[in-house]
Amino acid sequence: MYGVTKVYPGDVVALAGVDLSVEKGDFVFIVGQSGAGKSTLLSLIYRGATPTKGQVLVGGRNVIRLKRREVAVFRRKIGVVYQDFKLLPERSVYENVAFALEVIEAPQKEIARKVSAALDMVGLSHKANSLPGQLAGGEQQRVAIARAIVNDPLIVVADEPTGNLDPDTSAGIMALLSDINCRGTTVIMATHNQLIVDRMRKRVVEMENGRVVRDERQGMYCHEV
User: Which residues span the domain enclosing 140?
Assistant: First the structure.
């Protein structure tokens, strides 16, 4: 993204002149205080919002110029993982993951194959028929990750995916995201979890008041003096 500014109604400036480039296969932590602009930045990547000014290029396409009918096709390339899971409570684990393929009218054989592979990857094949309410928080987040990766996205965007989880469960989720990244998928994750960032030593982009104030390879949550 180049020169990106996002102003919400009421003249609330969420981003102010942000420049950020992420290469294919990268793993990036977005850190900063609440209100720094992390979630807004992520939403611009998957076209959940559009900038007030500037350009957002994903996979060589300017997402601002996408027509309405093109947005759904574009989003197939982006897997999104939320802090609160956003699972459909009345649908089984299998059905929640399959939903991401049903909305694009994928053939049933393809759905069955891809859902089975995604659930196997997150270690939840044995919970395919369970409802989300029957699962622990970490298991629900694994379902959300399976849904995010079932369509083989180029990028996984994760907004505080460990925010509601205990340290041991969080470590498992991060191991899973790291494995997904090792398979070639770009991962961009907003987090407040200092322990995770310091342990993994990936690229760290720090935001403050809507601006990028640090971009460091093999970084830590707080800048090393």
Answer: 89-151
Q: Please state, in angstroms and rounded to a whole number, the distance separating the CA atoms of residues 225 and 92.
A: 49
Banded model confidence at residue 83, pLDDT cuts 50, 70, 90: confident
Residues 136 and 160 in one domain: no
- What's the DSSP call for residue 129? T
* Secondary structure E strands in the chain: 2-8, 12-18, 27-31, 53-55, 57-58, 61-62, 78-82, 155-159, 186-190, 203-208, 211-216
Q: Does residue 67 sit in the same domain as residue 171?
A: yes
Q: What is the pTM of this model?
A: 0.93
Q: Is 76 left (phi over 0), alpha (psi -120 to 50) or beta?
A: alpha
Q: What is the mean pLDDT of residues 48-60?
A: 93
**107 and 215 assigned to the same domain:** no
pLDDT digit string, tens, across residues 174-195: 999 999 999 999 999 999 999 9
- Residue 146: exposure state from Cβ atoms within 10 A (0-12, 13-18, ≥19): buried
